Amino acid sequence: MLTTLLGALSATAASSAGQGLADDASPLRCTQSSSNSIQVEWDPVESTDLYYVALFESPTSRPFSIRTAANTTLALIDLAPSTTYYLSLRSHPATEPTIAWAPGWRALSTPIACKTLGIPAVSNVRRMGALAETSFGLAFDVESSGPLVLGRFEVGVARATSLDVAETTGPWALRLSDYTWAGLTTSRHTSAVTKGRVAFEANVTGLASGSTYFVIVRPVGGNVTSDATVFRTATVGMLYTVAHRISEYAEDIDFLENHDAASVEAMPLYLMTCSPEGNCQPWNKTQFTKTDADWDACEVALASICPTQRGIGFNGCVQCVDAHHDEVVKACGNYTDADKEHPGYPVHYYCGIGWPENLMYFSAITEYCVEHLPAPDADPRWGPGGFAQYVSCNSDETDAAFNNSARDPTCMCWVWDDRQMSLLPESELNEHCGGHMPWFVHESICNCTSSTTFPESTMITDDNPSHHYVGAAPMFLPWGYYRQPQETYPVRIPMGYNYAFPKAGSCKPGQTPGDSGCTWLKHPSSRMIFGPDLFGSGWDDSFIPDTLTNQSHTRYNIGIFDKATHLRDNLLTRRCCGC
């Protein structure tokens, strides 16, 4: 039978939501469900400015998606029918200076299990095609028990006041009379089909730009429908960017404010960063301690010895560690308080200093959708149109210049190493970076101001578009081949972008880019993968450098990374950024 959108849905949902675990310790409650969504609610947590609900395949797995919310009710959409999801809540203290720092969030709650309903006869309404301003493509499936006349369907759209309202309330409060109906011209043109589930595609036009709609499909004139979903149209002049980011100095998900990220092609390049001698980004804890348990024990001990200093860098955390030197050495082994990988990387990781910033196998790699305004007077080299110049954030260079705190990251003028990865001409590098004292990371200092005094010369001032607008820097193959700048590069193959997200331009939940001076908005839903997902998909961590004529190893891993990002499309229907 078809599922109605009226009271029967809520009544059925009330009895089915939350099947499975029943844990009184969890603040989460499943209150409604359909074949493609679950509504959850929770009691407010004191002194909290943001929440997220994490989705898991099992109570003991790592999350594969999160959805942020400023309120205490949330509709989780794009889910699979007849599927149990394990959900956990995390809240962010309003006293923290930024949401970007993963350990600044409170601990995840005990997971609960919630289950979506079964497949209705008209089901799986999903977004198709690219984001557009006044239209959207959709597909849906129809269960046929016999010959079925095609093209006899209509779509209902109900405009929501905002994306936040749509993702808080979900469709359950709506009635059929709240929808505006239009006939669908499907892509199928035969008169009938045989038994089974048949997929249709259609296009809906005449919509308002920059709007959020609840969408349902039904047979023409029927009073039963598909379950509702949420679609959006593009805002005129807005940009929509997918950015992948690996968490720094933490295994949990972190966020974009004053952080750098990358496109799906460029993120694998970062993961494959190596020195000419093959010293690559570390993947495992056992590269620094005998066992994973030894690493974890060190981190637990540091949390006891310096409980409030985690992530605040040299002036604070390292000072605390040095003040308890013998106790730290007993728990973690020898360490150095200089910016060096060995010895004592677990201590550096806890304090949030130096390079590398990640443990590739354990740190979350999160996929974000960002809606943003184009930067003024944008250089077309800095992205596919409308991006400010890239800035370097939360790095060992910012440690030296501004005593960076990973707990509240700092960004600075695009540094030499990052510029060289973009294969800028040597004359341009020298114009902005030449003639300055090299610092402890053996780079020339690059200027973004008229000052000749370090570190003021490296600051991103308020009148610089990079202070407010999303920045980008192009990446190229052969990756890591050119160790010295050149005026021209004989082989220079574009391979995506690195992105920078300045905290000063970040929009709060409920805002739209342009409100109160904000320029970019992270959309609520994000996906993540971890090292086991990459290696399970075939990632090859061998050191095989690119050459001018052969980049096959890098291209292979780029394909594997893209494959890994789709591993859970069966649990979370994929849609284009902004859709």
Uncertain regions: pLDDT < 50 for 5+ in a row? 1-24
Tell me, rounded to a whole number, the average pLDDT. 88
- Helix/strand structural class: alpha+beta
Query: Between the first and last Cα atoms, what is the distance in angstroms?
Result: 30 Å
Strands, count: 24
Number of helices: 12
* Major β-sheet annotation: 8 strands, antiparallel
User: Can you tell me the overall shape?
Assistant: globular
Give the percentage of residues in beta strands: 15-25%
Q: Share of helix among residues? A: 10-25%
Using only C-alpha atoms, the radius of gyration works out to 25 Å
Task: Note down, in words, how this protein is organized.
- This protein is α+β, with helices and mostly antiparallel strands and 579 residues long.
- Helix content is 18%, strand content 25%.
- The chain has twelve helices and 24 strands.
- The strands form six sheets. Strands 3, 4, 6, 7, 15, 17, 23 and 24 form an eight-stranded antiparallel sheet that branches. A four-stranded antiparallel sheet has the order 11-10-13-14. A four-stranded mixed sheet has the order 16-22-21-18.
- A hairpin with a 7-residue loop joins β8 (122-128) and β9.
- The longest helix has 14 residues, at 292-305.
- The chain is globular and about 75 Å long.
- Residues 1-24 have low confidence and may be disordered.
